[in-house]
Design a protein that fits this description.
By secondary structure, this protein is of the alpha/beta class. Helix content is 33%, strand content 14%.
Length: 209
């Protein structure tokens, strides 16, 4: 699949790059994509939720009324879950939500997600960006030139670039990552993927193995 290389003004440079069919042209495995997205979201959960149960409530252990003759149900402790301020029955406890997937399955999922974006023609290739200083305005102008202003976009750099990252940080809907930070959830969640030329070689060599 050939894609034209654009410059920061959104114009074609006259050059084209060939996207690897082994990464961008496979038959998508939707179930692998589902499993990888599910794992990513599960791994974001802290699992620190906790409610105090009956044994953990601070309060008197005195029997609050006599056993018989009151005409109401017997009650032995103010910490009972049936009273306001009592412990919670079967409350949440800290839990590890971490899930694991094999490396091969994760690669299949990422190739599938990239192939889906390629079929949707939602992939752009851009010349390498190089900002002298962080500039949100300059980065915003690039997005406008690519007609991505206000859309969910994922920009993949070839190497870590602090100035480009800082320039994008205040813009809602746009995210800048390096190839090592690219995952299935971010690919699926974005409306458009923008690959800088320097990023393609590393991604293709990593995912085609």
């Amino acid at each position: 699949m050939e894609v034209a290389v654009l410059n920061s003004n959104g114009k074609e440079t006259g050059r084209k790059v060939e996207l690897s069919n082994a990464v961008f042209g496979i038959e998508p495995n939707n179930h692998a994509v589902y499993l990888d997205v599910k794992q990513y979201l599960a791994n974001q959960r802290q699992g620190t939720h906790k409610a105090k149960e009956r044994a953990e409530i601070a309060g008197s252990t005195r029997k609050i009324k006599k056993q018989k003759g009151t005409g109401t149900a017997r009650a032995g402790s103010i910490k009972s879950p049936v009273f306001v301020g009592g412990g919670r029955i079967f409350g949440p406890r800290p839990k590890d939500y971490t899930q694991k997937l094999s490396k091969s399955l994760k690669k299949v999922a990422r190739r599938s997600a990239l192939s889906l974006k390629a079929k949707e023609q939602s992939i752009l290739v851009l010349e390498d960006l190089n900002f002298e200083t962080p500039s949100t305005k300059e980065f915003s102008n690039v997005l406008k030139a690519l007609q991505l202003d206000g859309k969910k976009s994922l920009i993949v750099l070839g190497d870590s670039n602090k100035n480009v990252y800082l320039s994008s940080r205040n813009l809602k809907g746009s995210e800048v990552v390096t190839p090592s930070e690219l995952n299935t959830y971010k690919i699926v969640n974005a409306n458009n993927l923008v690959f800088l030329e320097g990023a393609l070689e590393g991604i293709e060599s990593n995912l085609s193995k």
